[in-house]
Fold:
Amino acid sequence: MEQVLQFLTDAIEFFFGHLMIWNGIFAIIIVFFQRKNPKTVWTWLLLLYFIPVLGFIFYLLIGIDMRKQKMFRVKEVEDRLHEMIRQQERQIRNKEMGASAPDIAGYEDLVMYNLDTMGCMLTDNNDIDIFVDGNAKFDQLIEDMRRAEKFIHIQYYIIKNDVLFNRIKDVLIEKAAQGVEVRILYDAMGCRFFRKKYWKQLNRKGIKTAEFFPAFFRWFQLRVNYRNHRKIVVIDNKIGYVGGFNIGKEYLGLDPKFGYWRDTHLRIRGEAVSGLELRFLLDWNYTAKENLFGDDKYTTGYVIGERDGCDVQIVYSGPDTAHQQIRDNYISLINKAQKSIYIQTPYFIPDEAMLAALMIALHSGIEVNLMIPCMPDHLFVYWATHSYMGEMVMNGAKCYIYEEGFLHAKGMIVDEKVFCYGTANMDVRSFALNFEVNATVYDEPKAKEMTEIFKEDLKRCTHVTKDMYAGRKLIVRFKEQISRLLSPLL
Structure:
């Protein structure tokens, strides 16, 4: 026993006696083996300098770059889509899509970018319902599930085993007993409090479940970053849902901590559902190791919308891709704005490219409106958000704090002609680290409807003026500066 203790003592003394060498090795790994933004590299190096060794452990948990990993590629899907994508690209180049998709006029290059980089097809003849209240959204979702005949595919970042999931679960068990295929894909971090035995109970009822990036040991996550933040439901390839609502009672406004929960979710009927289903199938194939692309029922049977005729591209991004697709969509829309930009987001931590685009828009006379929540659910993110909001205010943006509960809506409207809403927050984490999905909708009537919803929200907001922001307390300034310093890591 004494020999073991002596060995451990010697090992510890050796390790800490050569601490500068270990720190140097860790620094080399960070600088030369991970291709990152220089600002982020310097932040990690400073953390490593002030918190030796422990800083590198933090890096292993939340800092490793996955961009070179091709996680979701399925060759048969790429082969199937290749010619369809090339054909649509030719139509855009030859200006042949004007008659069938007039609302993309002026946005052809954005459509082309999404096609070329990620194979995101433009679809037309879509009907879209906009939900801003959790009770209405989940009532409709449950009703749509009751009508399912073939399959129900569900993907959420957070699923809590509470009153809301009990309602959904009862319907899913009933449909599974009728022979409807039910699959639930959930994120291990977002569902870390959902006990395994309850998933097993669902499995015994005929419901298939899969866990994205499981924990290494119970709640211990080796990959705190790189979470699957997507929220997708597809029913029989006829109806698709995408947006900000997760599954939990707080999303119905039943959590006194948050009060009323203001979010935005889209219900889609039309060929855009194919983009949501494709994304689900790719994620399911990677997570559950079940390739469903050989069965036509998952890739055919989409209905044509009969009401709105919206042109839609389902766009997605993640740390495994070479492009920050959703961020690039936002920047492109900002650059194309001629009159107005409306932004709603719970977290506003733009990178340099997006912040520069917004500043150019502001100083070009474009009206920029930003709405954020009045309360934090992550303190550092909250104060960093206020710091960037303040910069927007001082440069002429109209900034608002939503006061009636928690604002969780995520999206942008430009010129009341096009909007992009979905699961991605306007922060570095959503743009570069999380797996996200948004719908870019090229349709003036629907964009005007979304704008009217934004303006209705203004009745529940406080307008932050330059004087208000300049007069904030010293402690608030301190919180903002510290949080902004850490923003590359948030």
Q: What stands out?
A: The domain at 126-309 is CATH 3.30.870.10 (Endonuclease; Chain A).
